[in-house]
Amino acid sequence: MKSRLGKVKTVIRRYRRASQMAVLSLLILSPFVNLFRFDLPSMSLYLFGVRLWTKHVVVFFLLLVTVIYFIIAASLLFGRVFCGWVCPQNLFNEVTREWDRRFGRAGSILVSLLVGLFGGFVVWSYFSDGTVLLRQYLSGQVPVGPTAFIAAAGLFFTLAMAWWRTAICRVACPYGHLQSIITNAETMHLQVFNMPGTRDICATCGLCAEICHMGVDPRTPEQKNCVVCGDCLDACALVSQARGVPRVLNFTIGAGERAVALRERGRLLQNVRHLAPRLVLPLLLTTVLSGVSGYLLANRPLVDLVVAKDHRHVLAAGGPVSSGGVMAVSLINLADRADHFRLLVEGLPEGWAALERTTVDLGPGERALVRLRVNPTERQVGIHRFTVRVVGEQSGAEASFETVHVVY
């Protein structure tokens, strides 16, 4: 069995492995270059090098929905392509089998454990600063909380790589099941194509099913676990070339008589149009949402300002009307660097407004409360509208809050 599989030239696998390694490298580097990282201690999120706070959560939500619609569009057309060409679990499903052959079972488990612990460290770095933790380890410190998390995550990854493997993809992975639900007969799938005038030229050697690490027999309609890896095509090419016939197994688009192989480019483009109605909406939403997300990210507020009536406890969020003479001005630095803020009160007669302080220095994510006392120098009954404004000197951030003072 090994010698037979060893003869297969896995050409498609080379391209797939390059895609998988590129994605894995990106996932490892992301938290350390702040491409994407949650920072739980400060309750912030790094996205493409930009630091976002709770007030910016809508940007992250829109980007998440954008990715989901893109995955839906890809799954409608190609099936579980993300599983085979992107997901790190599928990469390790294959390489751990190679570790079994090269290092033996015990050696493979040891390598899986080392990789799993490193994976646990990377996962921890998605929620806290991994470089700080690494410096602690290098200095001889062993913090209990992070170490316990890394050990637990490392154990999970070791079990996933050394024992569970494809069972996670076939049974436990919700994303894999979602892709299977989205696909239908029109989605790209494997099919045996025969030469014109012949009933069946498949050698029925079973090499295509034997090489599939997901346990799929590509000659049957049951292909929900197919991850579009392409190994079966290379196996079929080996046998077909030896028999002097074209490769009989191909990825096809369409169902029934309209099914055409990917290599039939002219008919393929014609057949893809049958999928257009299903692809238009997710692709349109992907385009629109990505544009909206980019705009909101570029124009996100850099400072948050709220003016509230000052009771015994300062209100966390103020209403538009306050009749109290003492108010609380709450401001939060939403930029990714420290800034010097100036506070201004506009719209009240001169001498009525007295700020506890007119300048505030805040680091990223820091909040300050400044009391504002409104003391009319003369009695003018009515509603007096005014605006509290804040300006950041370094970032140029500006925000204003309109409210009123009522004189009875």
Strand order within the widest beta sheet: 7-8-12-10
Number of alpha- plus pi-helical segments: 13
Biggest sheet statistics: 4 strands, antiparallel
Global morphology: elongated
Number of E-state strands = 14
Mind telling me the CATH class of one domain?
A: Mainly Beta
DSSP strand content: 15-25%
Helix fraction, binned, reads 40-55%
Rg, rounded, reads 30 Å
Mean pLDDT: 85
Order of helices and strands: HHEEEHHHHHHHEHHEEHHEEEEEEEE
Pfam families: Fer4_18, Fer4_5
Keywords: 4Fe-4S, Electron transport, Iron, Iron-sulfur, Membrane, Metal-binding, Transmembrane, Transmembrane helix, Transport
Protein name: Polyferredoxin
Can you put this structure into words, describing what you see?
The protein has 408 residues and is of the alpha+beta class. The chain has a domain at 303-407: Immunoglobulins (Immunoglobulin-like, Sandwich), CATH 2.60.40. Helix content is 45%, strand content 20%. The protein contains 13 helices and 14 strands. It has helices spanning 2-6, 11-29, 57-78, 81-85, 88-125, 130-138, 144-164, 166-172, 174-182, 207-211, 231-243, 265-272, 276-298, and strands spanning 36-39, 44-47, 50-52, 189-192, 249-253, 260-261, 303-309, 326-333, 339-346, 353-355, 359-362, 367-374, 382-392, 398-407. The strands form 4 sheets. Strands 7-8-12-10 form a 4-stranded antiparallel β-sheet, with no helix packed on it. Helix 2 (11-29) packs parallel to helix 5, helix 3 packs antiparallel against helix 13 (276-298) and helix 5 packs antiparallel against helix 7 (144-164). The longest helix has 38 residues, at 88-125. It is elongated and about 105 Å long. The chain crosses the membrane at residues 21-38, 58-82, 103-127, 147-164, 275-297, 317-335. Keywords: 4Fe-4S, Electron transport, Iron, Iron-sulfur, Membrane, Metal-binding, Transmembrane, Transmembrane helix, Transport. InterPro entries: 4Fe4S_Fe-S-bd (IPR017896), Electron_Trans/Redox (IPR051684). It comes from Symbiobacterium terraclitae. This is Polyferredoxin.
